[in-house]
């Protein structure tokens, strides 16, 4: 396996900000990964695993080794009349996995169509969209424990999934490298079309009895109309999480702003739309030099080209502080800051 030195990471992050890695190597299976972890040139260096680079912001050069996950392949672990359990290599492009499942008529991941990135990063933040999170179709994953090189299996409970959270983003951070993820998918699924814009898109298409493919295509159309394509405009999707606050906080804001966008989150908590808060704080469409806040979706920070990670980060701090000052609500960054 080739080890690259002073490697250019700009094409490997969807913000397209400049950054270099002291070392970079690719792995296609667990044996190659183990060999890299034991390589004398790389041993002891800080490690960063990268999939599609669609949820990271580089604010500095990486002083250690970037390990690019290219573990491919899919395997059917179990098939019954009702369901399948299918395992995908962590380096597989997420949307290719979703498309394959849709083609087979396996339901469970269609609402997560077109999310950028690789399969292995999906459990990291329990990716979610249009009413579904991966914790629902998730069955188990296998990860390499860096401390002893053992392959460990995690079920749903062990992953401790939360909203854009998991064990791997919190307590387990930097300790495991995800190798494969298995999903339990249904042949006759209950489709999730309750999310407002899916219903509207299906109505627009005159579809009353949608199939798995119809839902996938509706989600793709909605995403294309709402979110900037990172190949054209650098971004990492939502930069912040939608804040979950006590119902009283939402009521207080609503008293002054009846159009507040919010959703019940259980246990007397309410999820507020961060995009709404940022827009009302006056940031939507803001541009300074080469970076800014997207003109149609205020939750997405963008690099028009030539912007740096530090500039994006500094802008995120200004947005965060102004939302705190205007609404008394603390936003939390969703993107992984490196
Ligand atoms: P990377 O950016 O490469 O890595 C993300 C983090 O995971 C890093 O900390 C990295 O070190 C770690 N990591 C990656 N792979 C592994 C591994 N195998 N083992 C251990 N750690 C690993 N997300 C959503 O949830 N919902 C959305 O709707 C959504 N929409 C998006 C739209 C756009 C336009 C963009 C650009 C992003 C969007 N995202 C969304 C965010 C992003 O697509 C997801 O977080 C995705 O799962 C990231 O995958 P990746 O392979 O690019 O991860
Ligand atoms: N809104 C505004 N102004 C804006 C943007 C949004 O008022 O500039 C309002 C919208 O009108 C709507 C509400 O905010 O009432 C929610 O907006 P949207 O449906 O676009 O979703 P979101 O909350 O901004 C979340 C996820 C996305 C996911 C979509 C669809 C988070 C942090 N983001 O965005 O995930 O694709 O819902 O389910 O939960 C990501 O994580 O990177 C991501 C893109």
Number of domains: 3
Binned strand content:
25-35%
What is the CATH-assigned architecture of the largest domain? 2-Layer Sandwich
Spell the H/E element sequence.
Answer: EEHEEEEEHEEEEHEHHEHEEHEEEHE
Mean of pLDDT: 96
The ligands bound in this entry are: flavin-adenine dinucleotide, uridine-diphosphate-2(N-acetylglucosaminyl) butyric acid
Which spans of ≥5 residues are poorly predicted at pLDDT below 50? none
Q: How does the major sheet shape up?
A: 5 strands, antiparallel
What structural class is derived from the secondary structure elements?
Answer: alpha+beta
Number of helices: 8
Number of strands: 19
What Rg do the Cα atoms give?
21 Å
Amount of helix: 10-25%
Compact summary:
The protein has 338 residues and is α+β, with helices and mostly antiparallel strands. The protein contains 8 helices and 19 strands. The chain folds into 3 domains: 4-69, Uridine Diphospho-n-acetylenolpyruvylglucosamine Reductase, domain 2; 74-186, Uridine Diphospho-n-acetylenolpyruvylglucosamine Reductase, domain 3, CATH 3.30.465.10; 234-337, Uridine Diphospho-n-acetylenolpyruvylglucosamine Reductase, domain 1 (Alpha-Beta Complex), CATH 3.90.78.
List the helices and strands and how they pair.
Layout: E1 4-8, E2 20-27, H1 30-38, E3 47-50, E4 56-57, E5 62-69, E6 74-79, E7 83-89, H2 94-104, E8 128-129, E9 132-133, E10 138-145, E11 151-155, H3 156-159, E12 176-186, H4 196-204, H5 212-226, E13 244-246, H6 247-256, E14 262-264, E15 269-272, H7 274-280, E16 287-288, E17 291-293, E18 301-303, H8 309-327, E19 336-337
Helix pairs in contact: 4-5
Bound molecules: flavin-adenine dinucleotide and uridine-diphosphate-2(N-acetylglucosaminyl) butyric acid (EPU).
């Amino acid at each position: 396996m080739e080890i690259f030195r002073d490697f250019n990471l700009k094409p490997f992050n969807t913000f397209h900000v400049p950054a270099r890695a002291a070392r970079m190597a690719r792995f296609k299976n667990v044996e190659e990964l183990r060999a890299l972890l034991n390589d004398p040139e790389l041993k002891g260096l800080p490690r960063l695993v990268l999939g599609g680079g669609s949820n990271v912001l580089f604010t500095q050069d990486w002083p250690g080794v970037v390990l690019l996950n290219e573990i491919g392949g899919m395997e059917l672990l179990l098939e019954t009349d009702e369901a399948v359990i299918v395992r995908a290599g962590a380096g597989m492009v997420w949307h290719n996995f979703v498309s394959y499942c849709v083609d087979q008529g396996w339901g469970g991941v269609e609402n997560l169509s077109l999310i950028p990135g690789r399969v292995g990063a999906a459990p990291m933040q329990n990716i979610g969209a249009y009413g579904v999170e991966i914790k629902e179709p998730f069955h188990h994953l296998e990860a390499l424990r860096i401390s002893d090189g053992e392959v460990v299996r995690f079920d749903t409970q062990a992953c401790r999934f939360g909203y854009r959270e998991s064990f791997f983003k919190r307590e387990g951070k930097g300790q495991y490298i995800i190798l494969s993820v298995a999903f339990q998918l249904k042949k006759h699924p209950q489709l999730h079309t309750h999310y407002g814009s899916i219903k509207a898109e299906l109505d627009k298409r005159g579809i009353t009895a949608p199939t798995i493919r119809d839902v996938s295509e509706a989600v793709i159309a909605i995403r294309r109309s709402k979110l900037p394509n990172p190949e054209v405009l650098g971004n990492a999707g939502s930069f912040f999480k939608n804040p979950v606050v006590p119902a009283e906080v939402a009521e207080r804001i609503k008293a002054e702003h009846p159009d507040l966008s919010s959703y019940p989150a259980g246990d007397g908590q309410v999820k507020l739309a961060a995009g709404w808060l940022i827009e009302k704080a006056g940031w939507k469409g803001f541009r300074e030099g080469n970076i800014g806040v997207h003109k149609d979706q205020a939750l997405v920070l963008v690099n028009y080209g030539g912007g740096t990670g530090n500039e994006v980060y500094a802008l995120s701090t200004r947005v965060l502080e102004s939302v705190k000052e205007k609404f008394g609500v603390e936003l939390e960054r969703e993107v992984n800051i490196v």
